[in-house]
Design a protein that fits this description.
The chain is an alpha+beta fold. It is built from 19 helices and 30 strands. A hairpin with a 5-residue loop joins strand 24 and strand 25.
């Protein structure tokens, strides 16, 4: 007989089995085994919001197998992930498998290596019911909002819509930003930019006009810029002041879930879902050549900046041996965790600091290696000495002899730095969405030096509107405002994209007309649902449930009693009101009454219907046109959907013409026969006329430097 250990994922089970040996059997629940069925509300509102759980569809056989394993084992350990969701999964397992929730059978691993796993098994705890209540409260809140609010939104805008408690706030942030962009009025301004060389130097450096003898001057238009340029005609440029200094740049803290997703987006181009999938693989463990099976990073859902002293000591030893003792700070650096953070886990760090990326590269996929490198470098850099820079700021007076005699001059400024000691930057540099370093290395310069002017230009600029959110910037905004938690950031972004409330244009998130309509409706009728502070306070209340300060039933009553009244009032006020979206109105006339048909959504997807219903009940299939022509009969190529929802393309003359393809239509035509070209996977443009057979490599779109950043 052996002891049974139940974890969430098969890969994690495989890793832990190797550590525990034959006296233990490790198996996986593959996530939740029990949940609120989606076919109904599944919450008894009248009975203190009692949840009505059921076995997840398709897991009946697994539950039966787990029950048999429990009967045959000497004891059971529940070793699901160490967070709210993991605690709830353990509680559901205990309930379904008939285990006593008062027993010490809950095991937690912040990192998956032999030491941590054995220590966890030796020190089991009781299931934390406060943590379970916090997860249940979140699940019930989201179900109540989704099931009560979604039908209302669907009825007023478009069938099949849904509204989420946290996702709606995220869409509002994006919509509010779009409204700021639309309302923005650009202002013109000009800069005077000089290129100068110092005595004994051939390399030019940049200096910018900042004012004149009256003080700082802002150049508003071309006339003012031209006047300044005329005044500077024939001017001598003299160094008026040189201010030297030293600055210390401190490293960023180790990663939290939020900052990991942000940096992986900026530096690796990974979307949040991809980042977390790879991080999960690194956490759960893999076979490392020369080392054995192990998890490479600590638990990846955390907003704490705390690290263990053992990890600090191991990292310090590596830094000293590899770079030298001078790369450690005089005093250990500690980062302060935010007040509302859940401090149950450490920051994200390598489990074994001495395993540098190069040592594990052979055992990882390219994507795993890139993310591990990012995590390892950020952690190691956070413990290293500051970067010391020698700075210099140069003030320059420019004037003709006559102006100088009259006490008149124009003032320019230049600044730069040199690295005195690289410190942590030897490993890692923090990036932001608007990285721009205007400083450069200046040549040796001293006061009263006469500088040589290489060029002087007046440049027109316009103030820019705020940028749209990128995924990284949205996650940062959610974290800063207290909306959502580390475990929810990815699902928030994925949900608003899948619901088509937001679209991704390159890296930016842009609201659709549908998204704006939903937000405006909610702002009008349910202001609390899309109120950032209200939602953040609810997140704070959920944290208080977790710590045992607040009873989750009372919390649900506080929210729902007001929400229910607001919903009834909204239904009454908007009785008979329907919001028509511009994007739903087509230019296709109804052949029966002449009205322009509109897009509707039914159980089988989109279709066209006459807006004159019930007087006119005409409907027809919804067709997505392309610019391509059928290579067989010359008809129009249209987009269709397979039974599984995948896009394919066919001729609109079906069934007379049976042409179909998975290749994507393009606007290009074949240079041999003049028929439409289609793009095949692998970047190949092909002509699908069997008699022609032309193909060529598709040209890759050149990305601008700004797009790449």
């Amino acid at each position: 007989m052996s002891k049974l250990v139940i974890v969430e994922s098969p890969s994690k089970a495989k890793t832990i089995q190797k550590y525990l040996g034959k006296d233990y059997k490790v198996t996986a629940s593959v996530g939740h085994i029990r949940d609120l069925p989606s076919s109904r509300l599944s919450v008894d509102v009248k009975n203190d919001f009692a949840p009505k759980y059921a076995i997840v569809k398709g897991k009946e056989k697994l539950v039966k197998e787990l029950k048999e394993m429990v009967k045959e084992s000497d004891g059971v350990y529940l070793a699901t992930d160490p967070d709210r969701e993991g605690e709830a999964i353990s509680w559901h397992l205990a309930t379904v498998l008939g285990l006593d929730t008062d027993d010490k059978n809950r095991v937690k691993f912040n990192e998956i290596n032999k030491t941590s796993v054995v220590k966890g098994i030796e020190h089991p705890e009781k299931i934390d019911l406060d943590l379970v209540d916090a997860q249940q409260a979140r699940r019930i809140l989201d179900r109540l909002v989704g099931y009560k609010l979604s039908p209302f939104v669907s009825q007023k805008i478009r069938k099949g819509l849904s509204a989420g408690r946290v996702q709606s706030v995220a869409v509002r942030l994006i919509v509010d930003r779009e409204e700021e962009i639309r309302a923005f009025v650009p202002e013109e301004y000009w800069t005077l930019d000089a290129k100068l060389t110092a005595p004994g130097s051939r390399k030019s450096f940049a200096a910018s006009f900042i004012g004149d003898e009256t003080g700082k001057v802002k150049i508003a238009d071309k006339a003012q810029a031209d006047a300044c340029l005329n005044r500077l005609d024939g001017a001598q440029y003299t160094v008026a002041s040189v201010k030297e200094g030293t600055r210390r740049r401190q490293p960023a803290p180790p990663f939290t879930t939020s900052t990991l997703q942000q940096d992986a987006s900026r530096k690796l181009g990974y979307q949040g879902r991809k980042t977390m999938k790879i991080a999960q693989e690194l956490y759960e463990g893999m076979e490392i050549k020369g080392v054995g099976t192990m998890g490479l990073i600590t638990y990846m859902r955390t907003d704490s900046l705390r690290i263990s002293e053992e990890a600090r000591a191991a990292a310090n030893e590596y830094i000293t041996e590899t770079y030298g003792k001078n790369y450690l700070p005089d005093k250990p650096r500690y980062f302060k965790t935010k007040a509302n953070a859940q401090d149950g886990h450490e920051a994200i760090r390598p489990t074994t600091p001495s395993l540098s990326p190069d040592k594990v590269k052979e055992s990882l996929t390219v994507e795993q290696f890139k993310l591990y490198s990012l995590i390892w470098k950020r952690f190691m850099a956070s413990l290293m000495a500051a970067c010391i820079q020698d700075t210099v700021k140069v003030g320059i007076k420019a004037a003709t002899e006559k102006d100088l005699a009259d006490g008149k001059f124009c003032e320019f400024s230049a600044s730069g730095y040199t690295v005195k000691f690289d410190g942590y930057t030897k490993l890692y540099e923090v990036s932001t969405d608007d990285d721009e370093d205007a400083e450069s290395v200046l040549p040796p310069i001293k006061e009263n030096d006469i500088l040589k002017l290489k060029s002087l230009d007046g440049n027109q600029h316009f103030t820019q509107p705020p940028a749209r959110y990128t995924e990284a910037a949205l996650i940062k905004a959610l974290e800063e405002t207290g909306v959502g938690r580390p475990s929810t950031y990815v699902s928030i972004v994925s949900t608003i994209l899948s619901r088509e409330y937001v679209v991704r244009e390159q890296k930016q998130l842009k609201p659709t007309e549908l998204g704006e309509a939903v937000v405006n409706l909610l702002k009008q009728q349910f202001p609390n649902i899309v109120n950032v502070k209200f939602t953040a306070n609810m997140e704070s209340d959920l944290d208080k449930v977790e710590s045992g300060e607040v009873d989750y039933i009372k919390m649900l009553h506080t929210f729902y009693d007001g929400f229910e009244k607001t919903l009834e009032k909204a239904k009454e006020e908007m009785s008979g009101v329907k919001i028509q979206l511009k994007e739903d109105v087509t230019d296709i006339p109804c052949e029966k009454c002449g009205r322009m048909m509109v897009v509707k959504v039914g159980r089988f997807g989109k279709f066209l219907a006459c807006p004159g219903y019930p007087e006119c009940k005409n409907t027809k299939p919804y067709v997505v046109q392309t610019n391509a022509k059928c290579p067989v009969c010359g008809g129009n190529v249209i987009e269709k959907k397979s039974k599984r929802g995948y896009a394919f393309y066919g001729c609109d003359n079906y069934p007379e013409c049976t042409f179909m393809t998975w290749d994507k239509p393009t606007d290009e035509v074949c240079p041999k026969c003049g028929k439409s070209l289609f793009k095949r996977k692998g970047g190949l443009l092909v002509c699908l006329d069997e008699k022609c057979g032309f193909e060529k490599k598709a040209e890759r779109k050149k990305r601008t430097k700004k797009e790449e950043e």
